Amino acid sequence: METAMPTVNQAHFRITGRPLSSNFIAASVSALGISSPSTSNSPSSSRGRSFVARASVAVEEKTETKAALIRIGTRGSPLALAQAYETREKLIESHPELAEEGAIRIVIIKTTGDKILSQPLADIGGKGLFTKEIDEALINGDIDIAVHSMKDVPTYLPEQTILPCNLPREDVRDAFICLSASSLAQLPEGSIVGTASLRRKSQLLNRYPSLKVLENFRGNVQTRLRKLHEGVVQATLLALAGLKRLNMTENVTSVLSIDDMLPAVAQGAIGIACRSDDEKMAIYLASLNHEETRLAVACERAFLEKLEGSCRTPIAGYARRDEDGNCIFKALVASPDGTQVLETSRRGPYAFDDMIKMGVDAGEELLLRAGPGFFNR
After folding, report:
1. 270-275 and 161-166 as β-strands: parallel, antiparallel, unpaired?
2. I need a surface site. Which of 53, 63, 95, 258 has the fewest CB within 10 A?
3. For the Porphobilinogen deaminase N-terminal domain, which residue ranges apply (predicted)?
4. What gap in Å lies between CA 195 and CA 238, rounded to an integer?
């Protein structure tokens, strides 16, 4: 089932900073305010629509007058910066001493995944494509905390680092965005859907084998919306969480249900890491942690770790608390061409040890059912 999204206002950000090296920019982040779109389009009326990609980033020279109390490391995309800004605001809310100008500095770090845009993620290989350089900056003391999209974080953490904090999770569902159709089911046979995600590709082709997928459909949200508007593809799928954090849900045509498109492990969750020996930062982060999110993400990542999943493996998993307070965990693995999808689920107490066991057990079941060579089809 697909749900139409309401329109919302667009937040803008300004980044001011000074270059540190080829990979770093030290910056302070400030909100420029919230403005309303000049026109409002109903997402359910998609025909003839043009999309708006207004989140912008400007970099300008600024001289730092004093050492920051906390340096936040992040990627430089508008979405990554929105997540860093959210972290900054929550720190200030919990610790008023951090409200002083310059107390928190944003340090923008370019990762391998940001530098190589011409190849599909599965072809680049390796893990930590969007985290490695940020983790190195953390270990080297160039930053104090690192803000990550949890779906980008490998199941292992580098030595000397811990990830003790997850912010409250955003909507985990995927959004369907199209200029000419209101749902995937309404796309004509042979329509091209752009996505760099093998998880989305496999589930899409499993349900709609008459559609085609452009795999190397990469770039930030704004870039992908521009490519859609230019006619490179007829539709695309994006994480609703990112569009909400960018205040860009006016671009959403409809929202895919969990049953139609199971999300990526840890989709919609922000994780914040620090050095394992930095007690001060650990205390700051403990005040921000959302335990329900942390436990759900731990369950999903235990499942992913058991499967040893990577960008080459279509894997999905989602843990949530039900109305009785228990954990419901749904998971799947799929062949890349979508011809076969294996699903499973678990229910148990919403407690760390039980949820880790559920994730591991689900992974073991699907490994056994898939057999060798399943992901090579």
Report:
1. antiparallel
2. 63
3. 70-281
4. 8
Q: What is the CATH number of domain 296-376?
A: 3.30.160.40
Whether the Cβ atoms of residue 177 and residue 237 lie closer than 8 Å to each other: yes
Q: What is the pLDDT of residues 47-87, one digit of tens each?
A: 444 444 443 333 333 444 578 999 999 999 999 999 999 99
Compute CA distances 185 → 29, 205, 208, 211, whole Å. Answer: 42, 12, 8, 10
Q: 3-class DSSP state for residue 365?
A: helix
* Cα dihedral across residues 351, 357, 360, 365: positive or negative: negative
pTM: 0.81
Q: CATH classification of 174-256, choosing from 1.20.1300.10, 3.40.190.10, 3.40.50.720, 3.30.70.100?
A: 3.40.190.10
Catalytic: which of 114, 135, 142, 152? Answer: 152
Distance CA 2, CA 258 (A): 10
Annotated active-site residue 152? The verdict is yes
DSSP assignment of 202-259 equals: HHHHHH-TTSEEES---S-HHHHHHHHHTTS-SEEEEEHHHHHHTT-GGG-SEEE-TT
